[in-house]
Amino acid sequence: MKNIAALALISSIALVSCKKETATVTKVDPKTGKTITVEVPADSVAKVAENPAIRDSAGIITQTFKLEKGKTYPLTTYQRDVKTMTDPQGKSITATSESTDEMNFTVNDIKGNVYDMTLNLVAKRSSQSAQGKTIVVDTKLPIPKEDDLKMIWNINRALTGNKLTMKMDTKGNVISITGFDAVYTKISNAIGTLIKDANEKASVIASLKETFNEKVLKDQFNKNLTIIPKKGAKIGEKWTTTENADASGAIKVTSNYVLKSLGNGAAEITVTGGIPKKTEKKTQGPITHSLSSELAQNGTIKFDQSTGWITNQNINVVTTQIETISDGKQSQSMKSVSKSSVMVNPSAK
C-alpha cells in the first residue's frame, strides 16, 4: 500500500509539473478586425517590466521611454532601392542602390525626465549596382581606388567616428543635439587635400550642413523613435500623418498607422498609405505630354514594451512613374518602377 501511495504521489507531482502556465495577449483578430484576448504559453512571452514604457491603461496604449543609465541603444537605418526603367521598345534596365547608416545612443545620465545621451556615429556604407558592375563606399573598408569615390569616402569617414550630445525627455521629445561644429571642422580638414579651391571647398561644407544639422536629425529621430500618438491609441485604432514629398509642398505622402498588438514584450504597428496616382498633362500643338506617378507603402514597426525603444522597422515602398508622349495617332511611353525597403535595426528579429 505504501508503494501504491508513493506512486500516486509521484503521478500527482508529474501532473502538476507538466501543467504549463499561460499568459494573456491582446491582439486584433485578422478575420473580424475586433480586439480579442488570447492565452498563450507563459514561456513564450518575453519578460516585461512591472511598469513598462509602453503600457495599457484602461484600453489606451501610451508610449514613453524607460532607458537605463550606462546602456547603449541601436538605431541603424538601411534602405535598398531596385529601380527598373522600361523604354518604348520594352527594353528594361535595372539598377540597385543600398545605403546603411549605423549609429547608437548611450545614456550618460538621467536628470528628472531628461536623458543626457551620446549619439555615436559608427559607420556609413553605400553601394550602386547596374549592368553587372557594383561600386561600394564603406567607411569600414579602405579608401576606394576610383578618384570620383575618394571624395565620398573621405567625407563619410570624417563624418563617422564622431559623437554628438543629445537631450531627450521620457516622452521621446528631442530637446537638443549639439556638437556639429567639431564634425564640420573635421570634414573640412579631411577634404582639404582633395579640394584646393576655397570656394569649392566652402560649397561642399555648405551642402553638408543642409543635410546634416540639428533640425534634420531632430526630425529624423522624432519620426523613428515615437510613433504612437501622445494621447495614446487603442488596439486596432488608426491614425494618419502627412509630410511633404517635394520642396513646394504640393505633393504629400500619407502614412496610415494601426496599433496591431501589444504583448510578448512588444508593441507592433502596421503602416500603409502613400501618394495617390496623379497625372499631369501638357499639350503643345498636336503633341500631348503626360506624366503619371503614384507611391504605395506598407510594413510594420516594432517597439520594445519595457524600454519604449524601436527594435525593428520594415517598410516596403513602390513608386511607379509613366511618361507618355502622343500625337493623337500613336504614343510612346517610358516606365520607371522603384521598389524600396526602408528598415531600422534590420538585424533585429
From TrEMBL:
- Where does the record place Low complexity bias? 329-349
Show the segment(s) annotated as Disordered: 326-349
| Cross-referenced PROSITE patterns | PROKAR_LIPOPROTEIN
User: Domain of life of the organism in this record?
Assistant: Bacteria
InterPro entries from the entry?
DUF6263
User: Could you identify this protein by its name?
Assistant: Uncharacterized protein
Q: Which organism is it from?
A: Chryseobacterium flavum
